[in-house]
């Protein structure tokens, strides 16, 4: 066997200097030659760890083999048996912690670039034009309502419709996609790709109703009269704030608001699109996750001269993907580590002018296994800013729990759902994704949607709760 | 897409729009709001529901032509379609038998109190409505309000109708002269609601205001509409929009309302 090249075939991308001034996607994706070459790095192990490492159990060696043989059509079909949204997952999944983490090639070399290959197949298919629609399955005569057209709901809908159930999907916003559309920026996940995947779902027979706030325009009990089962994938809810003085000053956003303005409402195209966003010269984003990186990088693209990440621990403890941190650094985002805001200061018009931070040091590990940040007394410092974005997480969406008293919720207002089946405390109602687990990743929400789809299918067939 | 059934400029700059939205009409309660996007480019605009016809399946809202998105709305006519229309959002007013209720409305809020007046009367309350505008010709829905109120009092800043001054001036006079008022609800611009709160506070009459902060999604996700009530952060879209006026931190509201004045002007010019 030929010697395996130790490194992944690099993916070409927009140079950092150029891309910080536009919202176009950063990496270009593999060419056919690059994809084939990378696919040949896969050694097709007998007992592949990657499949088990994938929350939706894609036959990874299988589709990679097809790529190495240039059988792209077969490859995408195999991929889509398990994953309806490959163009999205190939871009936003944390592969380094999942499939690529357990890749055998990765023991001595860089693992196979599974995510990039997944993306390649999806992009290849889209560029071919006509996307193949599988034959319609035999109807089960059962109806399922999906509440929330984000990653969890879309995934559940895709499986359920392919198993012959009639699926209606309700979305509160005016566009489907959930966090894929309001949250993840265009330069990381072009919206055209999300809408393409949703169109595919519609072609499979899923009906989509936007502008439909379930809990308000229709209650869960009313839906249960019309449908045999429900899936609640209502996602993220109200943002958490630091609860420090000055946090309600003008110029201070939650990450959800900042990103929703920029992405869903296209504030970066203001004034053609009418939703404004404050384009700060010095923007501070508080937090160390992927969402914080998205905000800090969005700020640069909106014209910030300085975009600062304020994080209370060190870079090692940051929950963001390495790739995201790396991209942010390349683009010039400044990391103000071991610092935590204590207050925001203002001018006479109540606009934020400075953030005052406490310096931190790392103490003993906490419950999460990460070293706990401990404040250093009398070491506060101030930085001039004109916009701050608070990206420290959010609670699950409150709308369904607050309008459905008989559904059991947990400490954070999350809907309690069985992690294996998605079953909630209410018969016929399943849930998954951020509304059940609290803020997590797209792929985990998709995994939950997939498991719930199985749970729903079983319930529809047996009637057993 | 939602079809516009009727459109009218009630008085200069104040418009009504009636749309066919049977699902929302069926569920609407006094004090709730909708989010309207007139076209693809416009903002998500929260607007108080003014009226509905559950049989006909229609919702009517009153809006002020003020920014680019409401200007676009004002350009649309019967037969045109709205890009997006979502509701009913927010919690309805908590209406019970209070005794005598003062309902204060200004600008779009004159429309916003109509259904509350109706429901309060049904619950056996005596309803005194205070309607205010800059001038007599800017008052609207007088007939409608008179039909559902025990008494309607008018105030105009130029004195051309009712008393010269503001609704809160009449309210203050009534409270001082010991008119029995057990509950106050105010809907309108932030400054008017703030003034009503300041007027009623010394008399200890419970006062509910319908807050209208900047909102984006309106469904409990973005956190733009946060306001501070009783030293706690609340979200107008899901916790409100109605709050105890005497517990609100008004300074924060006032400055947050003004955050996008400059952008408003830019977006109207293009």
Break the fold down into its secondary structure elements and pairings:
The complex is a heterodimer of chains A (465) and B (270).
Chain A: H1 16-19, H2 32-39, H3 50-53, H4 60-68, H5 72-82, H6 86-92, H7 114-127, E1 143-147, H8 151-162, E2 166-170, H9 179-182, H10 191-203, E3 207-209, H11 220-226, E4 229-232, E5 236-239, E6 252-254, H12 255-262, E7 282-286, H13 290-301, E8 306-310, H14 322-331, E9 334-336, E10 339-346, E11 352-365, E12 371-375, E13 381-384, E14 387-390, E15 394-396, H15 399-403, E16 429-431, H16 434-437, H17 442-462
Parallel strand pairs in A: 1-2, 1-4, 2-3, 4-16, 6-14, 7-8, 7-14, 8-9
Antiparallel strand pairs in A: 5-15, 10-11, 11-12, 11-13
Chain B: E1 2-11, E2 14-20, H1 22-27, E3 33-37, E4 45-53, E5 58-64, H2 68-75, E6 81-82, E7 84-89, E8 100-106, H3 108-112, H4 114-122, E9 126-133, H5 142-148, E10 151-156, E11 163-164, H6 167-176, E12 183-187, H7 190-200, E13 207-210, E14 226-229, E15 232-235, H8 236-239, E16 242-244, H9 250-257, H10 261-269
Parallel strand pairs in B: 8-9, 8-12, 9-10, 10-11, 12-13
Antiparallel strand pairs in B: 1-2, 1-6, 2-5, 3-4, 3-7, 4-5, 13-16, 14-15
CATH domain topology of the largest domain in chain A:
FAD/NAD(P)-binding domain
Relative helix content of chain B: 25-40%
Number of domains of chain B: 2
**End-to-end Cα distance of chain B:** 25 Å
Multimeric organization: heterodimer
Number of helices of chain A: 17
Mean pLDDT over all positions of chain B: 93
In CATH, the homologous superfamily of the largest domain in chain A goes by the name FAD/NAD(P)-binding domain
CATH class of the largest domain in chain A equals Alpha Beta
In the CATH classification, which architecture of the largest domain in chain A applies? 3-Layer(bba) Sandwich
What is the number of E strands of chain B? Answer: 16
> Secondary-structure element sequence of chain B?
EEHEEEHEEEHHEHEEHEHEEEHEHH
| Main sheet properties of chain A | 5 strands, parallel
User: How are the strands ordered across the major sheet of chain A?
Assistant: 3-2-1-4-16
**Uncertain segments of chain B:** none
Q: Shape of chain A, please?
A: globular
Kindly report the average pLDDT value of chain A: 93
Strand content of chain A: 15-25%
Sheet bearing the most strands of chain B, described? 7 strands, antiparallel
Which two chains touch over the largest interface?
A-B, 45 and 45 residues
């Amino acid at each position: 066997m030929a010697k395996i090249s130790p490194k992944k075939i690099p993916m070409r991308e927009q140079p950092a200097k150029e891309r910080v001034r536009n919202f176009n996607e950063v990496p270009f994706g593999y060419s056919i030659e690059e994809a084939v070459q990378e696919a040949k790095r896969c050694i097709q192990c007998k007992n592949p760890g990657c499949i088990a490492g994938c929350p939706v159990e894609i036959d990874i060696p299988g589709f990679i083999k097809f790529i190495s043989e240039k059988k792209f059509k077969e490859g995408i079909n195999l991929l889509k048996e398990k994953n309806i949204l490959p163009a999205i997952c190939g871009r936003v999944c944390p592969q380094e912690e999942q499939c690529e983490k357990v890749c055998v090639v990765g023991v001595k070399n860089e693992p196979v670039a599974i995510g990039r290959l997944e993306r390649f197949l999806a992009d290849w298919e889209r560029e071919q034009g006509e996307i193949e629609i599988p034959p319609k399955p035999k109807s089960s005569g059962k109806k399922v309502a999906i509440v929330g057209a984000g990653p969890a709901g879309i995934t559940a809908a895709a499986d359920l419709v392919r198993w012959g159930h009639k699926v209606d999907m309700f979305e509160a916003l005016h566009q489907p996609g959930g966090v894929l559309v309001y949250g993840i920026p265009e330069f990381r996940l072009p919206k055209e790709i999300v809408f393409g995947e949703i169109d595919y779902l519609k072609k499979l027979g899923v009906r989509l109703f936007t502008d439909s706030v379930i809990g308000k325009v229709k209650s869960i009990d009313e839906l249960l009269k019309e449908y045999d089962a429900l899936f609640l994938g209502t996602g993220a809810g109200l943002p958490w704030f630091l609860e420090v003085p000055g946090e309600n000053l003008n110029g201070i956003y939650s990450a959800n608001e900042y990103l929703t303005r920029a992405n869903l409402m296209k504030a970066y195209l203001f004034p053609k699109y009418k939703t404004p966003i404050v384009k700060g010269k010095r923007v501070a984003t508080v937090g160390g996750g992927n969402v914080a990186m998205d905000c800090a990088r969005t700020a640069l693209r909106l014209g910030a001269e300085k975009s600062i990440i304020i994080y209370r621990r060190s870079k090692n403890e940051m929950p963001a993907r390495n790739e995201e941190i790396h991209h942010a650094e390349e683009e010039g985002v400044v990391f103000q580590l071991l610092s935590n805001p204590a207050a925001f200061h203002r001018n006479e018009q109540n606009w934020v002018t400075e953030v005052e931070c406490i310096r931190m040091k790392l103490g003993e590990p906490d419950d999460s296994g990460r070293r706990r940040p401990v404040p250093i007394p009398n070491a506060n410092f101030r930085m001039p800013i004109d916009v701050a974005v608070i990206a420290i997480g959010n609670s699950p969406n409150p709308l369904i729990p607050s309008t459905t008293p008989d559904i059991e919720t947990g400490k954070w207002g999350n809907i309690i759902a069985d992690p294996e089946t998605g079953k909630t405390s209410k018969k016929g109602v399943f849930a998954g994704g951020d509304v059940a687990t609290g803020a997590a990743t797209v792929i985990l929400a998709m995994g939950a949607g997939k498991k719930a789809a199985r749970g729903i299918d079983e319930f529809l067939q047996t009637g057993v709760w | 897409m939602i079809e516009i059934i009727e459109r009218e400029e009630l008085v200069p700059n104040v418009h009504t729009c009636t749309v066919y939205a049977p699902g929302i009409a069926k569920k609407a309660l006094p004090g709730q709001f909708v989010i309207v996007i007139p076209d693809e480019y416009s903002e998500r605009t929260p607007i108080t529901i003014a009226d509905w016809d559950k049989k006909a399946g229609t919702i009517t809202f009153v809006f002020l032509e003020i920014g680019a998105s409401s200007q676009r709305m004002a350009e649309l006519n019967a037969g045109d379609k709205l890009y997006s229309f979502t509701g009913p959002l927010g919690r309805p007013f908590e209406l019970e038998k209070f005794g005598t209720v003062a309902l204060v409305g200004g600008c779009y809020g004159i429309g916003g109190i109509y259904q509350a007046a109706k429901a309060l009367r049904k619950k056996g309350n005596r309803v005194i409505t205070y309607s205010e505008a800059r001038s007599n010709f800017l008052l609207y829905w007088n007939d409608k309000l008179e039909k559902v109120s025990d008494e309607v009092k008018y105030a105009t800043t130029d004195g051309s109708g009712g008393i010269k001054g503001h609704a809160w001036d009449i309210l203050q006079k009534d409270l001082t002269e010991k008119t029995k008022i057990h509950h106050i609800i105010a809907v309108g611009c932030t400054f008017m609601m703030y003034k009503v709160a300041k007027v009623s506070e010394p008399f200890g009459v419970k006062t509910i205001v319908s807050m209208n902060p900047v909102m984006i999604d309106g469904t409990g996700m973005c956190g733009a509409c946060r306001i501070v009530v009783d030293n706690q952060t609340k979200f107008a879209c899901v916790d409100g929009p109605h709050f105890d006026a005497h517990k609100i931190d008004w300074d924060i509201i006032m400055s947050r309302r003004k955050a996008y004045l400059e952008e408003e002007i830019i977006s109207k010019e293009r």
